[in-house]
Amino acid sequence: MHKNSIHKTASTAHIAFASFIGTTIEFYDFYIYAMASALVIGQVFFPAGDPAAQALNAFLTFGIAFIARPLGAILFGHFGDRIGRKTTLATSLLVMGVSTLLIGCLPGYDTLGTSAAVLLCVLRFGQGLGLGGEWGGAALLATEHAPAGKRGWFGMFPQLGPSVGFLLATISFLVLSLFLSDAEFKAWGWRIPFFASALLVVVGLYVRFKLAETPAFAAALAQQNTHKTPLKPLISKHLRPALLGALAMTVCYNLFYTATVFCLSYGTKTLHIPRTNFLQMLCVAVLFMAVVTPISASLSDKFGRRPVLLAGCFLAILTGFALSPLMASGSNLQITLFLSLALLLMGATFAPMGAFLPEQFPVAVRYTGAGLAYSLGGILGASTAPFVSQLLVASGGLIWVGYYVSAMAAVSFFAVFCMHETSESVL
Q1: CATH number corresponding to 2-418
Q2: Helix, strand or coil, per DSSP, at residue 104
Q3: What kind and span of H or E run contains 16?
């Protein structure tokens, strides 16, 4: 009895770590590109000239991955719902890792001309495919192993990945900024975090290959309760939760990428805040996201997913109105306050999604459904967020960027309001 208890605890800890480490690596890869797009991608891969045009081009390449993510969710979801979560998750991690490593190796515009930008877009698309297949599987890995009444808590582990991955990415660029000159950073320094990703991927693959299949999917496979093409029954029977889930995710994406990509670009290029200073502010802000994630997940188990999400969305609507005065102040303290508010509310709304989205779908289409909802939300909430914010600030000022944040939060509030409470459902 004692031995079984020890084995169960070790197995649960391994599952939690496996769901956490994979999303940490995937989001580290994703965020180092996001930061590079705000700091250097435009200068390296596009012709010299108008800095604003370079920034817009860089943000467009940033958005390509979000277009690829739903395709990745469908592709990997197809195999995840047919053959299993374990192998599919390992493959998605490998696709992401290889794409990231190759971006670090890719010569710039001075060497390859326009071909550099084309190849960059192809590899960025590969990053999106990998991440599109990662999140849904990691969330299912955690929640389909979770004991009753604890799915919100277990679903929190993959949700911690973004905050830890972002912190690692930010620290990477901060260290480079402290020890390298601007010329060295532009010439080769920005590539180092992309090379480091390869080491992280090896660790993630080792952990993933030691996993067993989830009980829910193993039972479905044994009962032959799977679909040859999971996308068909998803569209015919479960389209509503997929679309509402996508809209519910927009608040998370928009808060995060406004704070970390647009504000980083605006703060360093328009407000002329030194890159090291702004990265330090982001390191402080992301700690609030990391701390609130387990709190919000636990509250969602206690009070339900919808009340926690609705409260977070409402506060995010209000936070949009704080963007302009706090960012325009130029004060490091006030800017850090806004970044911290935005990332705290991102964590508060993101944490319950690890359980809320998988709970919307039956096991036979769950990988595809949860992953697709998550990825479609990224197209609306994140893919164009830095680009749209850049256009808005150029044409109407920062206040319109704040209105944009509030509008995206209102969309999510409405979507969550229309969805069913699922915390008591059986997976």
Answers
A1: 1.20.1250.20
A2: helix
A3: helix 2-39
